[in-house]
Amino acid sequence: MGAYMRGLLVTQLLWSNHTHSISFYTNAFLGNLKSDAELLEIGPGHGLLLARAVKALPNGKVTGWDVSASSLSHTRSPCGTGRSWGFNLQARNLFDQQAEQFDAVVFSEVLEHLEDPAGALRAIRSLIRPGGKLFLNVPINSPAPDHIFLLRSPDETFDLVRNQGFDILETGCFPATNYSMEQALRHDLTISVSLIATPA
How many Å apart are CA 59 and CA 48, to the nearest integer? Predict the structure, then answer.
């Protein structure tokens, strides 16, 4: 799993759809949260988004949940550096009933790995405080072997989110490196769909 996580981290720097999604996350999402916000990331993987949240929320509380203890060990020590990033990690299952609520929830590059994406979004909605926000990032037209849920268009993504009780506040769609949005849509190429939403 270590090589896989390191590979994912490298794509955040090399693939333009990933770099644009991270910029959208940093500027449009984190940049509009209060400095003392409580943020949860579900499925934090390599930990890059959590590390950015810690920096953006100096008075906040940043937490990561994952069902995999192995995955959490990689999040704790990105790229084997042994550095502590200042976030709290917990082995938790999103689908178990949770009592906590957060000002912000991050769900990036996870939805496509789930058998019940609609159920996941409904569970996330219950974790968000009134007035809170969701950052969702999901690849469309990305039939990787571990992607068991495949979305085909930005509109399909937006409809899925709205149908689970969210109002979408802002969106960003970022095609794969060296392709325009028109080319990506015409040829069914990978597009990273990022959005910010709030419970309706």
Answer: 19
